[in-house]
Write a structure and sequence with these properties.
The chain has 106 residues and is α+β, with helices and mostly antiparallel strands. The protein has one domain. Helix content is 28%, strand content 37%. The protein has helices at 51-60, 79-98, and strands spanning 2-5, 11-21, 27-35, 41-50, 73-77. The radius of gyration is 17 Å and the shape is globular. It starts with a strand and ends in an 8-residue tail after the last helix.
């Protein structure tokens, strides 16, 4: 999955406004409106997603395709932000398993 916004942003919530099939290989372009720095959905962008990546999103909320995804809010996260979130989750999982108290600063 790749995304691009007119005003670049690392992590955002977005609304899906349109879906377009790109080719016969199960790739789609989602037109989205991301949250701008004022908290408004005005940051125009696109997400390129393939069928394999799209299915879990649809199945989670039992959405039909393509109409069911229009108007849905999606979380768009940069790879670096995703890596940081995964590292935090792994650390907290280790703490829970070990029962140790650890002070962590992020």
């Amino acid at each position: 999955m790749t995304y691009q916004f007119e005003a670049p942003i690392a992590c955002t919530e977005a609304l899906v406004t349109a879906v377009e099939e790109r080719n016969d290989f199960g790739q789609y372009t989602l037109t989205i409106l991301g949250i701008d720095q004022n908290g408004c959905y005005t940051n125009k962008g696109t997400v390129t997603i393939n069928e394999e990546e799209l299915q879990p999103l649809l199945q989670e909320k039992e959405l039909s395709f393509p109409k069911g995804i229009i108007g849905q809010r999606v979380k768009v996260i940069s790879h670096e932000k995703l890596r940081q979130e995964q590292a935090k989750a792994a650390l907290f999982q280790k703490i829970a398993e070990d029962g140790e108290e650890i002070n962590v600063e992020f």
